[in-house]
Amino acid sequence: MKKLMLLLVICSFPFAFTLAQSAPYQVVFDVTSKDTLVQKAVIRWVTEISKGNPDAKLEVVLYGKSLDMITQGKSGFASQIKDLTGNKNVSFKVCAIAMKNNNVDKSQLLPQVQIVPDGIYEIISRQNDHWGYIKAAL
User: Which residue of 1, 103, 123, 131 sits 20 to 30 Å from the alpha carbon of 96, by its own alpha carbon?
Assistant: First the structure.
């Protein structure tokens, strides 16, 4: 009986590994920093993940003091954001509350950026949907 159980356990490993591999790769990045080194790190992380796994769903949510990253004329990452959002699974979203608090109008945003009513609520919603969470900080 023990041998049969051991055989069943051993035989189930490949199946379990296959299931683990097929799980969707979904990550939300929480960006609040004005620090361009933090912002550069986020661009690098999203770039590397999307290269390694083009089907990965990646969402960058910006609020707080991070809005320069996605503002025309202030962003040092406009071309990278344009390239990254060429992948339908990569998105950059900005909090409408943060826009109001920082006096940023929709017309000032990079065209690829989407507006969400509340950045924190967006992040929590993704976490409730079992997305991974990365707080961007150095």
Answer: 131
Domains and CATH numbers, the chain: 24-135 (3.40.1260.10)
**Six-digit token pair at 4?**
């049969």
pTM here is 0.84
DSSP, residue by residue, 26-70: EEEEEE----HHHHHHHHHHHHHHHHH-TT-EEEEEE-TT-GGGG
Residue 21's H or E segment, with its range, is: helix 2-22
SS3 121: helix
Check: CB of residue 56 under 8 Å from CB of residue 25.
Answer: yes
End-to-end CA distance of the chain: 54
- Cβ(86)–Cβ(118) below 8 Å: no
Strands 114-116 vs 57-62: parallel, antiparallel or unpaired: unpaired
Residues paired with 132 in a beta bridge: 27
CA distance 112 to 91: 8
- 3-state DSSP assignment of residue 11: helix
> Are 58 and 29 spatial neighbours (Cβ–Cβ below 8 Å)?
yes
Q: What does the pLDDT look like over 4-22, one tens digit per residue?
A: 454 444 555 455 544 455 6
Nearest to 138 by CA among 27, 28, 41: 41
